[in-house]
Write a structure and sequence with these properties.
It contains 4 helices and 10 strands, in the order ββαββββαββααββ. By secondary structure, it is of the alpha+beta class. The strands form 2 sheets. Strands 4, 5, 6, 7, 8, 9 and 10 form a 7-stranded mixed beta sheet that branches. The mean pLDDT is 88.
């Protein structure tokens, strides 16, 4: 990229997007030009092909230290949301997250999207909020809501990094109920 060249495919997506709406996998310059001629608020992101991973991270608002990291492999995605995932731990990944957060200086809850490509981790996106897959972390014992309350009461949180069971699955589903009302 430093040479000004692009390796295709790439993702073109809105700068302020949500739920994977208007994301395009682009294979050539002509398509990039076409998309940018129809919208001013787009960005180009490197296409990463590998195991998608989500990390739910809480950085204590008082101490500035990371106090909780929960990681999950994303198995099924739909409309930008994780529908099925499985918890796992990797100290190498925890180390990358610690280093990244320390350099950037986040506080509070963040949701990090990561790719595992051939055993190397690449951070692709950070959302400064709870991600849609956070219930997985919560049900596995990472109570970030409690951590927020502790900080609001002026108390620092104890570290809870990787204190959860591996191999726990989360599955989201839609439910439809049809009833005749009398």
């Amino acid at each position: 990229m430093e040479s000004g060249s692009i390796t295709y495919p790439v993702f073109v997506k809105p700068i302020k997007g949500s739920a994977s709406i208007a994301i395009s996998k682009v294979r050539d310059r002509d398509t990039i030009d076409l998309l940018f001629n129809h919208s001013d608020n787009l960005m180009i992101q490197e296409y990463l092909s590998g195991q998608e991973i989500g990390a739910d991270v809480y950085i204590d608002m008082i101490s500035g230290d990371i106090v909780s990291i929960f990681t999950k492999k994303k198995i099924v995605m739909r409309a930008g949301e994780t529908d099925k995932s499985v918890s796992f731990k990797d100290e190498k990944l925890f180390g990358l997250i610690r280093k990244f957060v320390a350099e950037i200086g986040y506080r509070g809850e963040i949701d990090i999207d990561i790719f595992d490509i051939g055993g190397e981790y690449y951070i692709s996106e950070v959302n400064p909020r709870f991600g849609g897959g956070y219930p997985h972390a919560y049900e596995c014992g990472c109570n970030h809501m409690r951590m927020i309350l502790e900080n609001l009461y002026g108390r620092e949180n104890q570290k809870n990094i990787g204190i959860y069971e591996e191999g726990i699955y989360m599955m989201k589903y839609n439910e439809v109920s049809i009833k005749k009302l009398d």
